[in-house]
Amino acid sequence: VYKDIPLPATMEDDARSKLKITIEHSDMTEEMQAQLKEIVADAFVKHTVYKDLATQVKQVFDVKYPPPDNKATSGVYHCVVGSNFAVSVTHETHYACHLKCNNVSIVLFRSKDSPFD
């Protein structure tokens, strides 16, 4: 099992420059999309396991964009990362994005516990 080892700054910059991140579909603001690209780039430099990538992206967005009342039942982020998957989700308007980093798909969305709340 490989541990996530921090890269020296020059190697990290080189690794980031090799990432091609494209937004496939989004209803997020341009600012949120730009921040998501940065967060995804950081995650891809630090992690190689998709589960760890998804966890980092989710946790950073949960902190950056918490629910208005800070209650998890008011909506938290969910992240799916992989090279081959299908997904159908109910999400809050303006809080979903599908992007690709090289050939890996990332879906990030915010959802409440129940779509009927």
Main attributes?
globular, single chain, about 120 residues, four-stranded antiparallel beta sheet, alpha+beta, 3 helices, about 25% strand
Structural summary, described in words:
The protein has helices at 9-17, 30-46, 50-64; strands at 21-26, 76-82, 96-101, 104-111. By secondary structure, the chain is α+β, with helices and mostly antiparallel strands. It has a 4-stranded antiparallel beta sheet. The model has no long low-confidence stretch (mean pLDDT 86).
Helix content: 25-40%
Q: What is the ordering of alpha helices and beta strands?
A: HEHHEEE
Which spans have pLDDT < 50 for at least 5 consecutive residues? none
Span between N and C termini? 43 Å
Number of helices: 3
**DSSP strand content:** 15-25%
Biggest beta-sheet profile: 4 strands, antiparallel
**Class based on secondary structure composition and strand pairing:** alpha+beta
User: What is the total tally of β strands?
Assistant: 4
Shape: globular
Give the spatial strand order of the biggest sheet. Answer: 1-3-4-2
Q: Taking Cα atoms only, what radius of gyration do you get, to the nearest Å? A: 15 Å
- Mean pLDDT equals 86
